[in-house]
Amino acid sequence: MTATWTELQQWQPLAAKMLVNGLTKQRIAHAYLFEGARGTGKKDMAIFLAQGLFCRVPSEGLPCGECDQCQRIAHGNHPDVHLVEPDGLSIKKDQVRALQEEFSKTGMESRRKTYIVNFADKMTVQAANSLLKFLEEPHQSTTAILITEQSHNMLPTILSRCQLISFHSLPPLIFKERLVAEGVHPTMAALLSKITNQLEEGITLSTDEWFVQARKIVLKLYEVLKEHPFEAMTRLQVDFFSHFKEKSQIELALDLFLFIYRDLLYIQMDKFDHLSFPDQRHIFESDALQTSTKQLSEQLTTILESKRHLNRNMNAQLLMEQLMLKLQGGSMLV
Fold first, then answer.
1. Which segments constitute the DNA polymerase III delta subunit C-terminal domain (predicted)?
2. Percent residues over pLDDT 90 in the chain
3. Which residue in 26, 54, 83, 333 has the most C-beta neighbors within 10 A?
4. Residue 322: which of 312, 310, 332 has the closest Cα?
5. Closest to 102 in 3D by CA, of 82, 76, 119
6. How does residue 328 score in pLDDT terms, banded at 50, 70 and 90?
7. Max alpha carbon distance in the chain (Å)?
8. Backbone dihedral region of 313: left (phi > 0), alpha (psi from -120 to 50 degrees) or beta?
9. For 246-296, how does the pLDDT look when each residue is reduced to its tens digit (9 = 90+)?
10. Which tens digit of pLDDT belongs to each residue from 154-167?
11. What is the four-CA torsion angle of 141, 147, 150, 153, rounded to 10 degrees?
């Protein structure tokens, strides 16, 4: 689903402002590099910039989005706007060569031409060198937009010829809205927005049975720890370690615990929009009333300390047992 201009402004205000200023003042660089994590709106912003260059009735630098030029660019069938993406695992020299041949011709509908190279870091060495020559001798009224998640994998000589525009990770509340718009249940989207900032990963996790079960197990362990603390150790052996086996999985479990106690703190602060487990709000509200802010702070610190111990390769079973003791008022982690 293509993002709207309003969404792009909300997601990437600095990038949006830079590009609108360039369009308004007609100061467009011959080459841009859009750099940032997946799911931050880079490709949508590239489409927006292309529309701004070709729009028949722009208003204060903004493309109308409705004219035939804007519509054709949005649907990928404008003869003077070309998108290059990996053919398999890489962008090959022949793809860049075909692009160069196309751009040696006069524009079909105007003097201007634009090309977008998505996943530019996946160019082969030969393709990158061919593109470099293209950038070194740009055709008049040609605009290049390179998109990458990993600019460090690109030739420094290409980077030096592009105007860099950085795209930052989306705030959790905005990313949650994106997930919901893609069909993810709001309850799951609230949690996933704290775990990842990549749209595809979030959508995949939302229907991943292992992750769905992981959420249930951690919530149940929290409930047992609160209501029947002496059963917590048994639950670790019966439910927890049979599900969380890898180090990365245990780290995720610690994050889920962290989000639970952080939710209690958010409830005390009346920040209900920030909850990771909105479906547990009624239960958590009761718990938050019976817990001091100081105690919550200590519990959060304990969980963070557990994460540090895990990264130092402490025995996972011992770590989790000590964490359960601490969260119910036992001895400090060592």
1. 247-327
2. 74
3. 54
4. 332
5. 82
6. confident
7. 78
8. left
9. 999 999 999 999 999 999 999 999 999 999 999 999 999 999 999 999 999
10. 999 999 999 999 99
11. -40
Between CA 167 and CA 165 the distance in angstroms is 7
Number of DSSP helices (H) and strands (E) in the chain, helices first: 17, 5
Q: What CA–CA distance (Å, rounded) separates 259 from 244? A: 17
Q: Which fold has domain 5-169?
A: Rossmann fold (3.40.50)
| Residue given tokens 């229907």 in the structure block | 207
Q: What distance in Å separates the CA atoms of residue 211 and residue 243, rounded to the nearest whole number?
A: 10
Quote the tokens at residue 130: 């061919």
Residue 324 CA, chain-centre distance (Å), reads: 32
- DSSP character string of 84-131: E--BTTBB-HHHHHHHHHHHTSPPSSSS-EEEEETTGGGB-HHHHHHH
Q: How far apart are CA 96 and CA 20, in angstroms?
A: 28
Whole-Å CA distances, 272 to 11, 189, 267, 304: 21, 14, 6, 23
CB 16 within 8 A of CB 8: yes
Q: What are phi and psi of 312, to 5 degrees?
A: -95, 15
| pLDDT band of 107, cuts 50, 70, 90 | low
Nearest alpha carbon to residue 145 among 50, 15, 75, 61: 50
Helix/strand/coil for 163: strand
How far is residue 80's CA from residue 74's CA, in Å, rounded to a whole number?
13
* Domain boundaries of the chain, sorted by first residue: 5-169, 208-327
Do residues 45 and 16 touch, judged by C-beta distance below 8 A? yes
For tokens 């082969």, what's the residue?
124
